[in-house]
Amino acid sequence: MVTKNFTVKLKEFAEARPVAVVVQLASKFDSRIFLVSGDKKVNAKSIMGMMSLGICNDEEISVEAEGSDEEAAASEIVAYMTSMN
Fold it and tell me: What does the pLDDT read at residue 16?
């Protein structure tokens, strides 16, 4: 399992578009992928789970990935969520 901690650097992350992009990115991978914020842990492939997480810009969170492509999955999600789009 790979865990990466990072700070969200996306404008208006709480809006649906960036959340949908994260779900699409996560869905490309075979690994199980979760985002963790505080005491909440949600499946990054679930749009409803991601919306319920309520992540804010400049928030410190973690991505956890487990599976055959875990490193690539975690790295790609971190790269997107720290890209200042």
Answer: 73
